[in-house]
């Protein structure tokens, strides 16, 4: 198995296991078993679990940004594009493998002891906020609205994970609509 294939299998397995069980509960042997990659190859590619966690988060960051951009693409009306962020959350919360936001969860587990993980989570959340700021600006609304929408979205992510319900996406969307109307 070449290095690129092994790396992809390791990242796939690690992401699925971390999502289901949390980072600290998953050992390297479980990742090896889940990926089908030998332990020797795993440690060649990722000499420390921290490096694997960082790689999973970096890859997830790129995937989420691309998914959200693709989801928003069909929306023409700037105000509907803002609200469509919450429709994206609704679709995500309904996925069988939804266990909450990878960045919130991993920051909660490791953010206080792993500066790299904390920085990746902060960078991801800053990019999400930047996306909201761009959407709000395109809609001609005040920049402060993006900060409020980010709080709604992140709160919905945490609440949906805890309650195991997609309902917080719709509730947050309704609150976002009120904020948009008030901003006009």
Automatic annotation (TrEMBL):
Single GO molecular function: DNA binding
DNA-binding region(s) from the entry: 27-46
InterPro entries named among the record's database cross-references: Homeodomain-like_sf (IPR009057), HTH_TetR (IPR001647), Tet_transcr_reg_TetR-rel_C_sf (IPR036271), TetR_C (IPR011075)
Gene3D superfamilies named in the record: Tetracycline Repressor, domain 2
Pfam families: TetR_C_13 (PF16925), TetR_N (PF00440)
Domain HTH tetR-type: 4-64
Keywords, ordered alphabetically: DNA-binding, Transcription, Transcription regulation
Domain of life: Bacteria
Protein's recorded name: TetR/AcrR family transcriptional regulator
Organism: Rhodococcus spelaei
